[in-house]
Amino acid sequence: MVFIIKHDEKACIGCGACVSICPGNWKFSGTKPKPIKTEVKEIGCNKKAADICPVQCIKVTEKK
Questions:
Q1: Which of 2, 31, 44, 47 has a 20 to 30 Å separation from 20 between CA atoms?
Q2: How far apart are CA 52 and CA 47, in angstroms?
Q3: pLDDT for residue 64 is more than 90
Q4: What is the mean pLDDT of residues 47-51?
Q5: How many domains does the chain divide into?
Q6: With contact defined as beta carbons under 8 Å apart, do 60 and 50 qualify?
Q7: Measured in Å, how far apart are the chain's first and last C-alpha atoms?
Q8: Model-level pTM?
Q9: Residues 6+ away with beta carbon under 8 Å from 35
Q10: DSSP of 17-64, one letter per residue?
């Protein structure tokens, strides 16, 4: 199974919660976080990163 990670950079407030909860796939790029990989085979902590985001700018979906 493959999961797609979408990050709405315009909606992102740069709080870094995703980096804190999922440092294996999220890093700061300038003042805002970005996913290192946008397609992953295992959802791992990316779901937690989406859930913890205060502005809900991270979406994790199954690739069809």
A1: 2
A2: 9
A3: no
A4: 98
A5: 1
A6: yes
A7: 9
A8: 0.93
A9: 5, 7, 25, 26, 46
A10: HHHHH-TTTEEEETTEEEES-SEESS-TTHHHHHHH-TT--EEEEE--
Q: What are phi and psi of 27, to 5 degrees?
A: -145, 160
The 10 Å CB-count burial string (b at 16+, else e) for 25-58 is bbeeeeeebbbeeeebeeeebbeebbebbeeebb
- Alpha-carbon span 46 to 19, nearest angstrom: 10
Q: Which two tokens stand for residue 8?
A: 């709405």
CA distance 41 to 3: 6
Edge-first strand order for the sheet with 39-40 is 39-40, 3-7, 58-62
Residues 6+ away with beta carbon under 8 Å from 56 = 11, 50
Residue 60 has pLDDT above 90, yes or no: yes
